[in-house]
Structure formats: C-alpha cells, structure tokens
From TrEMBL:
A Pfam family assignment: SRP_SPB
InterPro entries: AAA+_ATPase, P-loop_NTPase, Signal_recog_part_SRP54_M_sf, Signal_recog_particl_SRP54_hlx, Signal_recog_particle_SRP54_M, SRP/SRP_N, SRP54, SRP54_euk
Organism: Tripterygium wilfordii (Thunder God vine)
Domain notes for this protein: The M domain binds the 7SL RNA in presence of SRP19 and binds the signal sequence of presecretory proteins.
Protein name according to UniProt: Signal recognition particle 54 kDa protein
Keyword RNA-binding (UniProt): yes
Location of the protein in the cell: Cytoplasm; Endoplasmic reticulum
C-alpha cells in the first residue's frame, strides 16, 4: 500500500502541470490502494471528495511541496476517520466497572479479555473474568486456563447452559469481592444471526455493563463495516478492539469499525500472547496503514536534535530495523537534552502514549533518567545485543544491584525495550533515505 500511494504522489509531483486531471489520477490511485487495505468503499469515496476540497489546486501549482501537501491531507483525513469525536467510557481504578466483550466466534474475544485484564492487573487493578459463553464447548476451559496463567480470578460453569444466569452470578460475586474491573466474556456464532444478538442483548440487560467492547478480527476485510454495525444495533458498543494485527491484515477494517460503531478503537491485539496488546494510537496506526510514518516532521526534528555526526548511523540502524538498548539509551539522552520532552518521539510509533503520556512530562523525564541509570550498569555486550534473550536472570540481578534498583524495575525497562524494538522492527523499510537526506514515504 505504502508503495502504491507514494508512487501515485511521486508521479503527481513529477508532472509539470498539476491540473484537476492530474490530481484526480493521483486520488484514484490512492483510492485503489486504500481499498486494497480493506478500507470500506464508501469511506474511501468520502475521503476522496474531502481531499479534493482540502487540497487547493492553486497551492499545488504555486510550487509548494505538492507531495507534502497531498500526503498530509490523506494522513489527516484518515486520522479524522479514526476519531469518533468522543472518548469511550474509561473504567477507574478502585471503582467497580463491568466491561462486556462481544464479537463473532474466533474474533479473539476470550484472548482479548485476558489481555485486557492482565494489562490492568499489571497497573495495580483488581480484574476478574466471567465466562458467559455456554455455546462453545470448551469455552470455560479456555478462559480458565488463560485466567489461571495470569493469576486472575474467574467465574464460570461446566453445567449451566444459561449465559445470562452465569453472567449475573459472576458479576455479583466479583462485586462482593471488590474487584474493580469485572470482565464478561460472551459467546459468538460463526455467523451474525438473530439468536446471537438476542443473547448479547439479554446478557447486557442483566449485567448492565459500563462499557461494551466490540472485538473484531482485522483480517475480515470489507466485511468489517456490516459486522460492526450489526453488533452496534443490538448492544450499546462503546469501544472497539482490533485483533490479529500481527498477521497479514492491512488494518483498514478498523476505520470501518469506528465509522459503524461511532466508537474509538482502544487497543489492538498483536499476537496470541498475553502481553501482545497495545494501546491504540491513531497517528502511528495511520502511518502503518499508509506504510509511511510521519517521517517528514520526524526528519526535521532529527536534524535539530540529533548531533550531526550521529545522524547517518542512526538512520542506517533504523533502516535495518535494528534497535538495541544502546540506541534506546542514546535516544533517551537526546530526548532529555531537548527540553520539552517527547516532541520528537511523540511523532514516532511507540514513543508517545505509553512511554510519555501527555501531561506527565515530569514523570516521564524521571522515568527515562531511571532507565538510563539502570542501563549504565549494563555491559557493552548487553547494550549492543540484538538478542533480547541475552538478558538472563543473573544479568538482570547484577544490573538491579549495580544500579540500586529492584528486579521488577529492571524488568520494566526490558519490557519497554522489547515493546519499542518490536514496533521498530515492524516499521523498518519505512525508513529509506533518498539522496537529499530526506525520507521517502
Ligand atoms: P473468541 O472465539 O472470540 O473467544 O476467540 P479466541 O480468543 O478463542 O481466539 C481465536 C483465535 O485467535 C485463538 O487461536 C487466538 O490465539 C487467536 N488470537 C486472538 N487474538 C490474536 C491476535 O491478536 N493475534 C494472533 N495472531 N492471534 C490471535
Ligand atoms: Mg471465546
């Protein structure tokens, strides 16, 4: 996708006369690419006409950077489409919330319930899981296994066949136990059918969830819009989680789900494991969708912030997708040097929401400093290794002792590193330098 879009824009900027025809050709090319990424036809068409309104032919003709103007317009439009305008209900730690998961069978509900619970548990919540799937044989076993692995309390039954009854019992029990995040996993059917929606409606009516999360498999392609809409029509979907983003899926379905449910995507699933779960961030996602990254702004910043003699080396490493602890260390140094934290890296996937949430710059800054102190106790081999497995228990213990930190804190650092390394390795290829030292999309 990135390739064909950048080709289309390239052709356009090469054209000597930018007239309506050239712009249309470019937009048609982009339309094709977005459809291939599973963005719904109607959404693409709307976007195309919006872009035509935004992109002013006169600006293009006046010799401004055409590529940049169009690129920016597409980027902004896609971001806008992923923003339903209002945030979803956000559970509060220490206050009881009931969250119900819905979605077709196989979409990843049970897996995602556990990831969601685990994610919050790590942040000090008291989550609990309720299995209200009595349709699929083995559903309870699956949830039980997941929950046990993550040490999360669970409720379910092998005997009871009424999902409403189990859901209510489970929710009641965990309310009594003062759990603050009670998660209700429900059943799905292979197809969207009346019985499924009736069941969802009943479970929802009986448990009165504060939030209903629609779970969608990212590989369903053009079916996303209708599926999301069908769920929205029977239960009050308030948020979306898109799963299996690690596979071949191109992700355009997320736009459809937002449009159909008028609810934001809050997380994405990026693997089968418990921790393969990321907060959804609109800009990096759109970058990924377009295969481009917000590299133009990033490059400007890089030139300001990264010392000249470090630049080519960093670019080379980014292009290779190599992300060592040393690179992370150097980037933390750069971030801390530049004063207002996060300006550069907030443009890059992974460096924004989790590592440096808006409004807590001070904390982020001391976190980075703490991380760097720990990394000061690492050996060269550890800092330059591209194999995370090198960090065995005895090394971690040595680093903790050497830097005066707890094991847990070193583990946090390594987890952060793994998270960033994973994102960066996915983004490689997004970094290709042209001769001018400018990023190609
Ligand atoms: P449910 O029927 O909606 O409860 O779906 P499950 O949670 O049972 O998941 C169906 C399959 O999808 C399982 O094999 C999961 O391991 C897999 N799965 C779920 N989420 C992800 C994901 O983000 N990435 C990958 N690769 N597989 C996933
Ligand atoms: Mg399930």
């Amino acid at each position: 996708l990135g390739g064909s879009i950048s080709r289309a824009i390239q052709q356009m900027s090469n054209a000597t006369i930018i007239d309506e025809k050239a712009l249309n050709e470019c937009l048609n090319e982009i339309t094709r690419a977005l459809l291939q990424a599973d963005v719904q036809f109607k959404l693409v068409r709307d976007m195309q006409s919006n872009i035509k309104k935004i992109v002013n032919l006169e600006d293009l003709a006046a010799g401004h950077n055409k590529r940049k103007i169009i690129q920016q317009a597409i980027f902004n439009e896609l971001c806008k489409m992923l923003d339903p305008g209002k945030p979803s209900f956000t559970p509060k730690k220490g206050k009881t919330s009931v969250v119900m998961f819905v979605g077709l069978q196989g979409s990843g509900k049970t897996t995602t319930c556990t990831k969601y619970a685990y994610y919050h548990q790590k942040k000090g919540w008291k989550p609990a899981l309720v299995c209200a799937d009595t349709f699929r044989a083995g559903a309870f076993d699956q949830l039980k296994q997941n929950a046990t692995k993550a040490k999360i309390p669970f409720y379910g039954s092998y005997m009871e066949s009424d999902p409403v009854k189990i859901a209510v019992e489970g929710v009641e029990r965990f309310k009594e136990e003062n759990c603050d995040l009670i998660i209700v996993d429900t059943s799905g059917r292979h197809k969207q059918e009346a019985a499924l929606f009736e069941e969802m409606r009943q479970v929802s009516e009986a448990t009165k969830p504060d939030l209903v999360i629609f779970v969608m498999d990212s590989s369903i392609g053009q079916a996303a819009f209708d599926q999301a809409q069908a769920f929205k029509q029977s239960v009050a979907v308030g948020a979306v989680i898109v799963t299996k983003m690690d596979g071949h899926a191109k992700g355009g379905g997320a736009l459809s789900a937002v449009a159909a449910t008028k609810s934001p995507v809050i997380f994405i699933g990026t693997g089968e494991h418990m921790d393969e779960f990321e907060i959804f961030d609109v800009k990096p996602f759109v970058s990924r969708l377009l295969g481009m990254g917000d590299w133009s702004g990033f490059m400007d910043k890089i030139h300001e912030v990264v010392p000249m003699d470090q630049q080519p080396e960093l670019m080379q490493k980014l292009a290779e997708g190599t992300f060592t602890l040393r690179i992370m260390y150097e980037q933390f140094q750069n971030i801390l040097k530049m004063g207002p934290i996060g300006q550069v890296f907030s443009m890059l996937p992974g460096f924004s929401s989790e590592l440096m949430p808006k409004g807590s710059e001070k904390e982020s800054q001391s976190k980075l400093k703490r991380y760097m102190t720990m990394m000061d106790s690492m050996t060269d081999a550890e800092l330059d290794s591209t194999n995370p497995k090198i960090m065995n228990e005895s090394r971690i213990m040595r680093i903790a002792r050497g830097s005066g930190h707890q094991l847990r804190q070193v583990m946090d650092l390594l987890e952060e590193y793994k998270r960033l390394a994973k994102i960066w390795s996915k983004m490689k290829g997004g970094f290709k330098m042209s001769k001018k030292g400018d990023m190609n999309m």
